[in-house]
Structures are given as structure tokens and as C-alpha cells.
Amino acid sequence: MCTLFIQIQINFIRFFILSTTSIIDFVIPKMKVINYLISRDMDNDDLLEQDHDENWMDNVVRTEK
Question: 43: which DSSP letter?
């Protein structure tokens, strides 16, 4: 009984470590991209800086500024 319990714990720990590693491998690159995109906002309006008329939604939001 005790060995079964220990084996279950070991399997859970393996699963947890693999899951955590998978989550980290997925999230960290996306965080880097988000940081890059945040750095592209020059006037702190939460929009990416673009050339004139490059994005219609961007133009709509900027007119309300």
C-alpha cells in the first residue's frame, strides 16, 4: 500500500513538472513578444505606431483622442 502511494506521488510530481515546463515554454516567448509590442507604443495610447491610414481601426480610435 505504501509503495503504491509513493508511486502515485512520483507520477503526480512527474506530471506537474512536465506540465509546468510546457506552460513555461509556451508563455515565456509570448511575454517577450508582448514586451516588444509595448515598447512600440510611443505615445502611451495602447496602440502600435503605424504609418498614415495603415489600419482603419487605429484611425478610428485615434480620432477620439
Answer: S
| Other beta carbons within 10 Å of 44 | 7
Rounded Cα distance between 38 and 27, Å, is 16
Tell me: the pLDDT tens digits for 31-63?
Answer: 888 888 888 888 888 777 776 666 677 667 766
Query: pTM (2 decimals)?
Result: 0.42
Sequence ranges of the domains in the chain: 2-63
Quick check: 26 and 19 in contact, CB under 8 A? no
Residues 49 and 40: their CA atoms lie apart, in Å, by 7
